[in-house]
Write a structure and sequence with these properties.
heterodimer, A: about 300 residues, Beta-lactamase, five-stranded antiparallel sheet, 10 helices, globular, B: about 290 residues, alpha/beta, D-Maltodextrin-Binding Protein, domain 2, six-stranded mixed sheet, five-stranded mixed sheet, rod-shaped
């Protein structure tokens, strides 16, 4: 292996992770076009990256007239999925439109919003979107709520915080089904760049809904992963992160001024169990920078 | 007759439906292929194939016997694989360990591996000492059968046993001042840099050590050394502290003290390719020091 792939492999090793990466220029007129691929067909547990196909399924349901994007949704504290951000982190009932529920799901990876949206959209519509868009290596089995239930069960914990602290123990590595790509929602780098390309070329849904998705993905707040690789004003980054135990991911689109956009998917699995590993977050940006750099024209 | 060879002819022709293609795949010319099939048909007493103008068709008998032929070739494959494993085994078990592994533990591991090797004991055990990243690569590429590495490490698709924590001790250059605050004891002990292996030996384990030192309030930093011998030499001359899991490592001019709270254990893990779960379990058990003197 030579070129950008060799450099990317070195960066993953130095960060203490196993890594998967795929990057391609968007809209290379039909042919496969140039790409950077490192285990790009290896299946990886998606974690919150599943919210991206859910977003697409939601937008297609709006196109079909099945869902009204401005319909109000009431999210009650006792019925909400736990999480550190968005409505998940709040104390009181919240009412917002479906499209803002989807926005909170993407912008801050709001777990409560994601499960509320999944309840509205339904898993069959997600499967339908995956099939229509040709994402054969991607499977979505459920939402964040389902992942939490299986984590508590598989780690022998009593509560979700207890399960999460067992995931973070360097002395007793656990192997729950939630981290098994055969048993949990999983995808590949190649499938995710394909999905991003469909969103950026108005092929994933109607042009209006694709524009909404690009806006929402551009509103994503985390600066420590993909965006950390592109810290200057000549470039825009839109993306969706995923985090679960040792898994840290981001898939997104990097757009340099006056250049073709590049779709990039970076998935990592850390050797260390700690919740906070800044070097791993940063390697998502640095490897993406190498990959995108190799594809600039 | 060479039954297996002719069965392979039959299966290949049945798959290719053309004598020409089948002959090319096997790497012979058509006449010996045709003769081989005739011999097989004579030996079994049934016609297996109909030779038509557009190629070859299975007869009813041929269709009925084809699955049996497949099973025979599969059994041959299994036999050859098993023979290859035995042939490898006669070289002995190829075991890799990290340099931090205490010498007594190396001996226990080698003895355990040899005892479990059954027919292979003749070949004994070969031991390679190398850093974690090199050992993981060697196991993944089949150059080692099993290895003991420092945890946490990036393991790719290897299987790993439970994490074994070996307690560690510090070799410190001069007697530390007596301290009454138990939380500050490690910081009180480590007043010169801690000698550590190069980060590239295993980046995640290195980073975990450095982060734990920070958590414990140790601000003396680390200094990179090639091996434990070099580390002890630095300690003996007052320039570094040594962290060791080996009870036999000592030197004059240094004081050996257990790490307070056992917060810097040597975490070890046995790794192997997917096919050796029992060896992994046995070696993991051997890593733990037997209780009491024997």
């Amino acid at each position: 292996m030579t070129g950008p792939e060799a450099r990317i492999r070195e960066l993953f090793t130095a960060a203490g992770v196993r890594g998967w990466l795929h990057a391609k220029r968007i809209g290379s007129s039909g042919d496969p076009g140039p790409e950077v691929a490192l285990d790009a067909d290896g299946r990886v547990v998606m974690a919150s990256v599943y919210k991206l196909p859910l977003l697409v399924a939601f937008c297609r349901a709006v196109d079909d007239g099945a869902l009204d994007p401005v319909a109000p949704v009431r999210l009650l504290p006792e019925a909400r999925t736990a999480g550190p951000t968005g409505v998940s982190a709040m104390s009181d009932p919240v009412t917002m439109s479906l499209r803002d529920v989807a926005r909170s799901m993407v912008a801050v990876s709001d777990n409560a919003a994601a499960d509320a949206l999944l309840d509205a959209v339904g898993l069959p519509r997600v499967h339908d979107a995956l099939r229509v868009l040709g994402l054969r290596a991607t499977s979505v089995h459920g939402g964040t709520r389902d992942t939490h239930v299986s984590l508590v069960r598989d780690t022998g914990a009593d509560t979700l915080p207890d399960a999460m602290s067992r995931l973070a123990d360097n002395d007793r590595p656990v192997d729950p089904t939630a981290l098994d790509p055969l048993l949990s929602s999983a995808t590949t780098g190649r499938d995710m760049t394909r999905l991003l390309e469909a969103i950026w070329t108005d092929a994933a849904a109607s042009p209006a809904q694709c524009a909404y998705m690009r806006t929402v993905l551009g509103q994503q707040v985390w600066p420590h992963r993909l965006a950390a690789g592109f810290p200057h004003p000549a470039v825009r980054v839109a993306g969706k992160t995923g985090t679960l135990g040792p898994l840290r991911h981001e898939v997104g689109v990097v757009q340099y001024r006056d250049e073709p956009a590049v779709a990039v998917a970076v998935f990592t699995r850390a050797a260390r169990a700690e919740v906070h590993l800044p070097a791993v977050d940063a390697v998502i940006g640095s490897t993406a920078r190498v990959a995108v750099g190799a594809l600039r024209v | 007759m060479d039954l297996l060879r002719y069965v392979r002819f039959f299966v290949t022709i049945a798959e290719e439906r053309q004598f020409g293609f089948a002959a090319r795949r096997i790497g012979i010319s058509q006449p010996p292929l045709s003769r081989g099939l005739q011999r097989l048909e004579a030996e079994l007493g049934v016609r297996l194939l109909d030779r038509g103008p557009h190629g070859v068709d299975l007869t009813d008998a041929g269709a009925a016997l084809l699955p049996h032929a497949h099973r025979l070739l599969q059994a041959e494959h299994t036999l050859r694989q098993a023979a290859q494993i035995e042939a490898t085994g006669s070289r002995g078990v190829r075991l890799g360990v990290v340099p931090q592994l205490p010498i007594a533990a190396s001996a226990r591991l080698a003895a355990t591996a040899a005892a479990r090797a059954d027919g292979r004991a003749r070949g004994g055990v070969t031991l390679l000492t190398a850093p974690t990243t090199a050992l993981v690569d060697a196991v993944a590429e089949g150059r080692l059968d099993v290895a003991v590495v420092v945890h946490p490490a990036v393991l790719g698709s290897l299987v790993a046993g439970d994490v074994v924590r070996l307690p560690t001790a510090l070799l410190v250059p001069h007697p530390p001042r007596a301290s009454t605050d138990p939380r500050s004891r490690l910081r009180e002990l480590v007043r010169v840099p801690l000698a550590v292996p190069p980060r590239e030996d295993n980046p995640p384990a290195h980073d975990l050590l450095v982060d734990t030192l920070d958590e414990q309030g140790v601000t003396a930093g680390t200094t990179r050394v090639a091996d434990e011998r070099a580390a002890v030499a630095l300690a003996a001359t007052g320039r570094a502290c040594v962290l060791t899991a080996d009870p036999t490592v000592h030197a004059t001019g240094v004081r050996r003290v257990p790490v307070p709270g056992d917060v810097l254990p040597l975490r070890l893990r046995v790794v192997a390719p997917e096919r050796a779960p029992e060896l992994v379990a046995a070696l993991t058990a051997a890593l733990v020091e037997p209780a009491g003197p024997r």
